[in-house]
Design a protein that fits this description.
With about 240 residues, the protein is mainly beta. The chain is about 5% helix and about 45% strand. Strands 2, 7, 8, 9, 11, 12, 14 and 15 form an eight-stranded antiparallel β-sheet that branches. A seven-stranded antiparallel β-sheet has the order 6-5-4-3-10-1-13, covered by helices on one side. β14 and β15 form a beta hairpin. The longest helix has 8 residues.
Length: about 240
C-alpha cells in the first residue's frame, strides 16, 4: 500500500531469504534484520512464493478480520493485511522499481481518515481505491482474490464477489501475503492466513503453494510464523518498539 510498492518492499527480491524457494519440507530461515523505519518507513511481516519463471494467473488467500490500528492515520499512515500479486511477468514500469503488481487487503487508516476499510491498488501507474463492502466483524473469515482475466486486465474479488478491474498485463510470477504498516507501534492482533493459493496461467485451476519463504523487516516487532508450511501461517505484532 502507499508508495511502498514503488520499491517493491525494499525490492523483495533482494531480501526474501535470497529467493530460496524450497519445494516443500522445512521452511527456509528468516531473512536478515533490516531497518523497519528506513527509507520507506514501512514495516513488513509476510509470506511469499515465487513461480521460478513459470507463468501463473493470479493469487488468493483467506484471513480473519481483525481490529488493526495505525496511530499515524492522520498523517496518511496505515496498518494493513494485504495480498500482492505481481503482473507483467515481473517487468518494470517507467520509474517503478521492480515488478508491477495488483494488491488488495484490509487496512486501518485511509487517506488521513480514522477508519477501517477494504481497498485495492495497482502499480502501473500507482493508484489505490477504497472498497465500500464491509470487512465483517472481528474473527470473520474472508477470501481475497486477484486473478488475470485477459491480456490487459486483472480482476479483484472479495469473498468471490467481483470488486474491480485492474489494468495490468500478464503474468504473475510472485505472490506475497501479510502485514504492512507505516508505524512501528501499530496494533496488529494475530491474524491467520490460510488457503494460500495461486492460479494456473490458463483459467481456472487453483493450486496451493508448493513452496514459500518469509520476510520480516524487523522480527523484534512484526512476525510471520508458519502453521502448516507452506499453505497456512499467522502474523502479528509480538514485540515492543523501537523496531
Amino acid at each position: 500500500m502507499g508508495a511502498r510498492r514503488a520499491a517493491r518492499a525494499i525490492t523483495l527480491a533482494t531480501g526474501l531469504a535470497s529467493v530460496v524457494w524450497l519445494l516443500g519440507g522445512v521452511p527456509p530461515a528468516k531473512a536478515a534484520h533490516l531497518d523497519c523505519m528506513g527509507t520507506l518507513n514501512h514495516c513488513y511481516a509476510i509470506a511469499t512464493t515465487s513461480s521460478g519463471g513459470t507463468n501463473w494467473g493470479g493469487g488468493q488467500a483467506r484471513w480473519d478480520t481483525r481490529s488493526y490500528y495505525a496511530p499515524d492515520w492522520a498523517a496518511w499512515g496505515f496498518a494493513a493485511e494485504v495480498i500482492w500479486v505481481t503482473t507483467r511477468s515481473g517487468a518494470s514500469c517507467g520509474v517503478e522499481m521492480g515488478p508491477t503488481w495488483v494488491e488488495m487487503g484490509l487496512t486501518h487508516g485511509w487517506q488521513g481518515q480514522n477508519m477501517r476499510t477494504l481497498y485495492w491498488a495497482d502499480g502501473c501507474p500507482y493508484g489505490k481505491h477504497r472498497i465500500a463492502t464491509s470487512p465483517g466483524s472481528d474473527g470473520s473469515l474472508h477470501v481475497y482474490t486477484v486473478q488475470q482475466y485477459n491480456s490487459s486486465w486483472y480482476k479483484v474479488y472479495f469473498d468471490f464477489n467481483f470488486v474491480a478491474n485492474a489494468e495490468e498485463a500478464p503474468w504473475t510470477r510472485e505472490i506475497d501475503v501479510g502485514i504492512e504498516t507505516t508505524d512501528s507501534t501499530a496494533t496488529f492482533p494475530t491474524t491467520t492466513d490460510d488457503r494460500l493459493q495461486r492460479r494456473d496461467a490458463t483459467c481456472c485451476t487453483w493450486r496451493y503453494w508448493s513452496s514459500g519463504s518469509e520476510y520480516e523487516s524487523d522480527p523484534a516487532c512484526y512476525v510471520w510464523t508458519w502453521i502448516t508450511y507452506p499453505t497456512k501461517g499467522k502474523n502479528g505484532r509480538y514485540g515492543n518498539p523501537p523496531c
